[in-house]
Amino acid sequence: MHKKAITFSDISKYTGLSKATISRYFNNPSYLTKENADIIANALKELNYQENKLAKIFAKGNSEIIGIIVPNFFYQFYSHFLNHVLNTYDQYGYKFITFLGNNDAEAEKKYLNELLSYQVVGLIELSHNLPSEYFSQLGVPVVSIEREDKFINSVNTNNLLGAKMAVDLLQKNQCDIYFHINSLVPSCVPSYGRIQGFTDSCQAKGLPHEVILRPFSDLYEETYRRLYQIYQDIKKKYNGQKKGFFFCNDTYANIFVNILVKNGEDIPHEYQIIGFDNSPDSSQAIIPITTVSQDIRSIAQNAMDLLSQQINKESGDDSTDSLKHIIIQPSLIERSTTD
């Protein structure tokens, strides 16, 4: 059976105080005497009162809710990021509603309309189905993470530097041939810097290299199949040479390590593997994977700081109106897949 909700009238009858006084307790407590505040607080406890926060925040026109659009949870970066964002509740007091983009632009528009109907005060965008110009016209503050960001604020990793770190380590370990494995990333997306940084570093150093781009999906079986084909092609072409691989994320790196282990390949003496993200995939792999670590905690914190500044900015403060693109520096974590 549903328990009857306790109303202001119930509290008023219980305490003998007016409904106006009860209302001041919730909305303007500084106008109450300590005696009346204590009486009401004791009554709430005895009546087992449960405040209807939704009614309160919607009455104020401020939901205190932030919407988040993530593309999927196939890549552990997203769940890792989300974990850090949700842990900012005590700091900011915001609540969160999350939708999955699932590579469907029309579905994402539907989800955004749903979020706007909840009067969200801001959005964090990790999906890539819609251009930043679309988000700039929604009428709420938006921060993107590793997505095209011409018209909205963003927090991104220094992907160029991360790729350079990977190439430097593979060169230090004297690889004969260098590979970068990635999906078909548009050049306007910040993570394209992983492709550009790898190519620029290898060319500057005169290192023999290949950039292998494939239309990877968010399905494990299909990703495994494509990576297995890459493994077979490279083994046939470069058998016996020391091969250095820089992957665009730890998920692909982990799948590739599994392929190498199943086929009895020598890690790290013939195959050197570096991932990107420092997601749990890398540290929990059957052979712990060297990775370029995105500072996911810092990315989440900066995203929330930036979003909170936009939400709370003074209307006359022009300095907050210009777009901000925050760049977080990566670090290299060496594990067992490199010498």
Description:
This protein is α/β, with parallel strands linked by helices and 339 residues long. The chain contains 14 helices and 12 strands. It has helices spanning 8-15, 19-27, 34-47, 53-60, 76-86, 89-92, 105-117, 132-136, 159-172, 192-205, 220-238, 250-262, 280-283, 296-312; strands at residues 65-70, 95-100, 122-125, 142-145, 153-157, 177-182, 209-213, 243-247, 271-277, 290-293, 325-328, 331-333. The strands form 2 sheets. A 6-stranded parallel beta sheet has the order 2-1-3-4-5-11, with helices on both faces. Helix 12 (250-262) links the parallel strand 8 (243-247) and strand 9. The radius of gyration is 26 Å and the shape is elongated. The chain starts with 7 loop residues before the first helix and ends in a 6-residue tail after the last strand.
- Rg over CA atoms: 26 Å
Give me the secondary-structure category: alpha/beta
Write down the overall geometry: elongated
Q: Report the biggest beta sheet as strand number plus sense, adding barrel if it closes.
A: 6 strands, parallel
Instruction: Give the N-to-C terminal Cα separation.
Output: 64 Å
What's the helix count? Answer: 14
Low-confidence stretches: 314-320
- Compute the average pLDDT: 91
Topology:
Blueprint: H1 8-15, H2 19-27, H3 34-47, H4 53-60, E1 65-70, H5 76-86, H6 89-92, E2 95-100, H7 105-117, E3 122-125, H8 132-136, E4 142-145, E5 153-157, H9 159-172, E6 177-182, H10 192-205, E7 209-213, H11 220-238, E8 243-247, H12 250-262, E9 271-277, H13 280-283, E10 290-293, H14 296-312, E11 325-328, E12 331-333
Parallel strand pairs: 1-2, 1-3, 3-4, 4-5, 5-11, 6-7, 6-8, 8-9, 9-10
Antiparallel strand pairs: 10-12
Helix pairs in contact: 1-2, 5-14, 9-10, 11-12
